[in-house]
């Protein structure tokens, strides 16, 4: 695909798609189990990654942010290979192949993944080399290549190499006493061709140079050796230029960068006696799991490529030869290295609702009426303030909170520790298995325990993904409970980048439900009766199915709007198909994976699926059911995936306040009206980006919400 066609293309790339569904004769039922009714999970995830990549071509985004979208695509692909591709390979390795509803065997899926991923990655480098870098050059931001270095720049690079790189780099010659090193997952490395003998008379002809992980991959050249502008040089270029200094007296015939992606999924048994200790052991092995992908510079000789493939037990299908740096994720550093605010999104100040701008305490505000915040448009600080005030308030007796992803320097964690030091009963349910946050959560648990917090690691076999805070406060001779429930993590950084809802209430039924959920998490016993919340793994799945079926009973009067990050759970998809067949109008706003096949005659005529990709990562989970004019609105921590609905601890909470429910419906309508940052899933599996009709105003949902809630556009 050429860059020019990439600029004009509106579809989401080509995938193998199910065969067309034959429309059954009138009165004959559609076979809901037929493979062609479902899209493959992994291929759908690749489609989402591609939609992220296409943002790099969208000139309504600032230039540096377009580069960052290109980098995010790389980061997403890394995780895709580390987890999803690795999982398929593990199935084949151990003879545990499972077939999804789409009917695709793991080997078939891997073959199609390879074909599609190669196309996408080729396009990524085409965009980088032929669109983004030339546009950055026009803005006087230069990635200075070795062949372009002036004598002054070359001298500066030599000094940098000798002072910063040479002392920490460890070249490894390959011979019988120096076998191929065990390289860390996703690390930058070089394979070097050598000629001659070393000081010991060895003549190996080959060496490996791991790039020091402590060094930045991109370095800004000082202004005094440049002729203006922002000038950046790659660490790989500096190592390439001075490889001969690593092998004195030998001839370097070639130096080529490569990068190995390994299986990074953690496997823990369900009958562990000590989850924390077992997890620490698994984290050490994550860095050295089986290889799943090899990225190599496209100028690397074929014999060296084959040597690496053999060394890592990979095939041509797993090889990605790229025209540029093998780790584009590190280019995210550009935003911090160059001073060009005109090329990035302008900042904005998240708003705070009038209800909590007064001098009243958070408790007073919540008692007056429940609070709903929509991040990042509205500030996350009220959630922090609630916990801080609870820590200092002498009337607060106990605090309980779940922690999934929180951040190393979280103000919320400091508030919990402060509360414990002040003698309050503080319990933290920490999910140690939050993917790629495990080490941080282990450290977090230790810090809280040292402060006197009771730390619980949740339930083995069921990740605690629910977002809950429970505060018990003595008021006028009785105890009142205050609750925070959210769709996203207790992470202040994410709250500036992800769209999420925060809900704060002292409703007795909801607070009693949350109290029972904490009892189940920290203690033992039968599942307790919950009044208002839906919670997995017990009631969430069944209640959602019953609500979908209720709408189906209303027929053409039924209405469903669901906003998920992913939809893969087959029984829910079948329920939506049946509702569509009954005439229910269904809109699904699904950011990423969607295995449901929309707009198929006789199957899903009434289902529309769209994905919103923009400045912020869409993360809110909302379930709207029309209920014949008496709508039910729920916000949730759970996506429409089997793991969320059946094998995690999740919550969905109702918005009983009519004003709050109406507000969320208005937000959903805004997403459904988006005509420029929304992508519509087609029956054949492709996505088409919406474009304003001639004469219509551009409507980007995120920008509308930003202006509506902050006054900033």
UniProtKB/TrEMBL annotation:
Family matches, as Pfam families? PP_kinase (PF02503), PP_kinase_C (PF13090), PP_kinase_C_1 (PF17941), PP_kinase_N (PF13089)
Q: Which Gene3D superfamilies match?
A: Endonuclease Chain A (3.30.870.10), Polyphosphate kinase middle domain (3.30.1840.10), Polyphosphate kinase N-terminal domain (1.20.58.310)
Give the binding site residues for ATP: 76, 498, 591, 619
The Polyphosphate kinase C-terminal domain extends over: 361-525, 533-702
Q: GO CC terms on record? A: polyphosphate kinase complex
Biased composition (Polar residues) is annotated at 1-13
Domain (Polyphosphate kinase middle): give its ranges.
153-333
Q: Which UniProt keywords apply?
A: ATP-binding, Kinase, Magnesium, Metal-binding, Nucleotide-binding, Phosphoprotein, Transferase
Post-translational modification here is noted as: An intermediate of this reaction is the autophosphorylated ppk in which a phosphate is covalently linked to a histidine residue through a N-P bond.
Question: Active site at which residues?
Answer: 465 (phosphohistidine intermediate)
Give the required cofactors. Mg(2+)
The biological process GO terms on file are: polyphosphate biosynthetic process
Q: Does the keyword Transferase apply?
A: yes
Gene Ontology molecular function, alphabetical: ATP binding; metal ion binding; polyphosphate kinase activity
Domain Polyphosphate kinase N-terminal, by residue range, is 38-144
The residues that the entry says bind Mg(2+) are 405, 435
Query: What EC number(s) does this enzyme carry?
Result: 2.7.4.1
Q: Which reaction does this chain catalyze?
A: [phosphate](n) + ATP = [phosphate](n+1) + ADP
The organism's superkingdom is given as: Bacteria
Q: Which family does it belong to?
A: Belongs to the polyphosphate kinase 1 (PPK1) family.
**Function text:** Catalyzes the reversible transfer of the terminal phosphate of ATP to form a long-chain polyphosphate (polyP).
Name of the protein in question: Polyphosphate kinase
* Gene, per the UniProt record: ppk1
